[in-house]
Amino acid sequence: MAKTAPKKPFVKPANSNISAVKRSANKNRDFIDISDLEENELRKILDFAKELKSKLKTSGHPRYLAGKQLAMIFEKESTRTRVSFEVGINQLGGNAIFISGAQSQIGRGEPMKDTAGVLSRYVDIIMIRTFRHENIKELAEHSVAPVINGLTDYSHPCQIMADIMTIEEQLGNIKKQKITWVGDYNNVCRSWIHAADKLGFQLNVSVPENLKFEKFESKNVKYYSKPEQAVKDATVITTDTWVSMGENEEDKEKKKLLKPYQVNKKLFSLADKKAIFLHCLPAHRGEEVTEEVIDGKRSFIYDEAENRLHAQKAIMVWCFGII
Known about the structure:
Elements: H1 18-22, H2 39-56, E1 69-74, H3 80-91, E2 95-100, H4 112-122, E3 125-129, H5 133-142, E4 147-151, H6 157-171, E5 178-182, H7 187-199, E6 202-206, E7 221-224, H8 227-230, E8 236-239, H9 252-258, H10 265-268, E9 276-279, H11 291-294, H12 301-319
Parallel strand pairs: 1-2, 1-3, 3-4, 5-6, 5-8, 6-7, 8-9
């Protein structure tokens, strides 16, 4: 009878800690900001989103992420982000797990790097909707699983991908459009600026001069203090609430400052005749936009909301390198 070779003693690898794992070449792609991606990658996502939408409404698309687990972390409340990501991963063959920031260890101060290290052992992909942009950066730095920005105070890239998809459905190639942002300078506006810089379309930004904001320098972005100048010949007018989540809802001074920037029938009439209106929702009718505009024939807010589903499915598939 042959002798069995003695078992070698277990030696812990020198690089077996989580920081070594996150540096692995096998790490998938994160979707944090539009400014992080090149035009060709953004185009891949947009085109694939259209393909997914078309197939879903006809023959149904393949379950590209069969068996994949998506962790959805919410430090900010949500309707569209939660439902679209949960339905999206289900349609792709995966499963979603809801994690409330307040009711998890994150709410008790657990560092994001520890959350990242643990979740990376449980799930395949993470989406987070949070306040501080630094949170998502720390999460992505320490996560082996790809991380998607569902919204931060700094940016809202998934929303803009859905918006561009909506524009191209209604008007054609984004490069041929003139987009005008009117109102508060916030996370949505900032992601519009990132998109204009990367995809090469014209973006006019009209916000009050007294609001503190940084001007992102790009040949594709122009700034106007008067909204009437910014909307001239625009093919798309878009806005958002004057007070973002987490800010003082009763900030009367800010609302007073933004009142001349309301998107109403008079302002909208200065745009191109084929112009459409977009709003990421939720909307405060009578503040940043009047009912006759947001509920009018040129408003595509529900198409825009639906396209969050398709754009985010494409983003998740892109994160795994399938497209």
